[in-house]
Amino acid sequence: MRFLLRRAAFYLFTAWAAITINFFLPRMMKGDPISAYLARNQGEVSPEAIESLRILFGLNTDRPLGQQYLDYWGVLLSGDLGRSLSKGLAPVTAIVADALPWTIGLVGVATIISFLLGTSVGTFVGWRRGSAAEFVVPAATFLATVPYFWLGLIMIALFSTTLGWFPASHAFDKTVHPEPTWEFVASVIHHGTLPALTIVVTSLGGWILGMRNMMITVLDEDYITVAQAKGLSPRRVMVGYAARNAVLPQLSSFALALGFIVGGTLIMEMIFSYPGVGLRLFEATLAKDYPLMQGIFLVITLSVLVANILADIAHAALDPRTRQEAT
Amino acid sequence: MTTLEFSHVSRTYRVRGAGELRALDDVSFTLTSGKTLALVGQSGSGKSTIAKILLQLETPTSGTILLDDAPIPRRGRALRAYRQQVRMVFQDPYASLNPYHSIRHHLERPLRLHRVVPSGEIDGEVSRLLERVRLDPDMAGRHPHELSGGQRQRVAIARALASRPGLLIADEPVSMLDVSIRLGVLNLLADLQRESNLGVLYITHDLATARHFSDEIMVLNKGVVVEHGPADDVILRPQHEYTRRLRDASPNPDALFAAKDAPFKKKGRS
Amino acid sequence: MTTVTAANATMEPTEPTPERRGFAEAFAMFRNGKSIVGLVILGVFAILALLGPWIAPYDPNAIGLEARNSPPDAAHWLGTTHLGQDILSQIIIGTRDVMFVGFGAGLLGTLLAVVVGVTSGYIRGAGSEILSALANVFLVIPGLPLIIIITSNFDDPNMLLIAIVLAITGWAWGARVLRSQTMSLRNRDFIQAARANGEPLWRIIAVEMLPNLMAVIASSFVGTVTAAILTQTTLAFVGITPITQWNWGTILFWAQSLNAFPDKWWWYLPAGLCIALVGMALALLNFGIDEYVNPRLRSAGKRARALRRRGFTQADATVVAPEAKR
Questions:
Q1: Is the predicted ipTM greater than 0.90, yes or no?
Q2: Integer Cα distance of C210 and C206 in angstroms
């Protein structure tokens, strides 16, 4: 129980820190595109929208800083992240809500596949030390160092432009309606294959190597020898004893790697024009659309926190030692 | 002549979720130059806590410690002087030396910190220290992993003696050594004590060596002193139940076969 | 393990080992095969970075309209861009940016990690928890969006600025590892002995602890450099950092904007391969360090191969390594 409380406290603190960073960012940046925009488009913006934009981006300097901070929290908690300057003043929350599912889908699917595949291969390679399987190691290392954006481009060049197997952009075909029909789902999968594949290939190396190293360390433990001496089948020992213990540190590194995975996915979206938050962030950056940029930053950070919490719960559930500590 | 008085010292720890742990409960003893006091007890009895308190790595919850009738200093130059007087030989020869540094480094540090000899004579003093513990002075340039357990422990003893202390705490100095070399190291300690008239606190779980090596024995059980007296008295005529059990737990091959109600019978009988 | 009886406690006189041995020990981790290969590759790129402007055959910006879009030939070893610019020169000049920002960010980030990590590992109580929470916050907050937002604010960020931003977003991982290593080191007997000696705090950390942490620090440095190089080239490619300075990512930016894919392979392959090569070299370095620190990894393959020669397969038996006798 104490363990979960401490983690909860930590996540709350991090969320607060992220929101506070977001508060200070526009105030530290020079120039004021918001005011300029508002000045140009006076008539089109509703007073409420103006007010919330001013609070979110530090334009209400008539109030003391402490008061600004409280107002900021007030606006956030009411679910308002401001208006996007580059997308016709649409509420930021709406834009993010549209884009987020695509990103989560892409990240989720790709990560799960590469985690499962990488961990399995790593288990096998670690189990068969010194055999031909060792050649996987330099291959995996190379994969882990290839910059993903470059691989993405190569993928497009190869599979899309040359071979024409997969489309190079967007989440689904323009002609298909976004309804839950098989046609739509098929189109989504068709379009999503290349980006997901790129993420899988680039992150595979890391998982394989990590699992292999953990397996080697675990296999030297005495309880493995005991299991084998008991006469259990090699597969049973490999999976039930070795892998089960080796995978635990992988889980915690998974949670920490989430930040990097998200970064990689953002780049993928930019390259493949995949309509997730990454693409929106890119467009917002080019257009200097600060409200959208910061809204996305906040949402991404909070999502990563949630994912971390889930990973923590999974880790606690799987590791009997944490459970005991908690009692 | 140096005297250290440990008076009615208690140490309690607060454990998260489990209340309080009394590591030491009203423990008192005196260390004097030239005498060895053995502190006997099993794991968890509080022996290490006493050592840490004496080294000022921990502070007692209550009680007083007096060195030559003055409360022990806790800071500044006086603390440094205390650290020069009271030294310890650690239990694990594989952990008490920094794997990165040479033997010379380990012996130089106390010499420099306590300004035992002028800078120019440090090398010479290092060699002398190594000779005192019967090691080749050429070993000074080596690193711990190149030495055996017994050699490392001798280096640890040399390090403790480097500052020319009055009192030595030996925390299970031979428990982690091969049985065959234990006697050698213990005899070395006894010789060194005689030469320098040291007061020694010999911490051990082994009654036999306690008797061989010390004048007085103090038996500790779960933080409480259950017996305290001259070595022979405690071994041959133990007053407390716990001491008796400790003594009986030591394997004595002759007694096993000889006694009428011996647990083992000679071969040939069922 | 030789045992020494009381009788023959003195050893045979041997060659006294030189005192500086300890210092060299710290770099023993770089002596295995993998590390050496990695260092050599990095050395080559370092030379390119330093001597770039003098080695490059052409000015990377120089337009040569006669030789546009041409594949590699004698005049242009890596071919030319749509404007006739020499790609080889672009790569050579671009090396400086990449290496400077990468290693700069690595240095700053590792420095930060050591200060925060070791301090929070050594001290106890509230101070330690606060520093640890600080590191964790920076670890969880996703770096890339933060970097994008901060760098987009500046119109023409120079290399130092980018290095600083990357260091700020990348130090936390090393700090976390160092903290846990320091905490376990702190309880080791030789540190207790140093404290009992009366060593001042700064000496305990700098002289007694740090050398034992060298492998972790080196590994963390290498990791930070790798991440910095990848992030920096990615940002340049996407166009977020200015494209006025040459950098491998910038080359790819132009390649993509001008439809070099898939035909003009000479334009986009070399830059990507260079990035991968540097990353590979750094990874090899990391491997070398890993094997040094964890001797099990070192001999895992060798032992298994030796077993196989004698007729056992890995699946049949786990070798019980003869532990050093106490």
A1: no
A2: 5
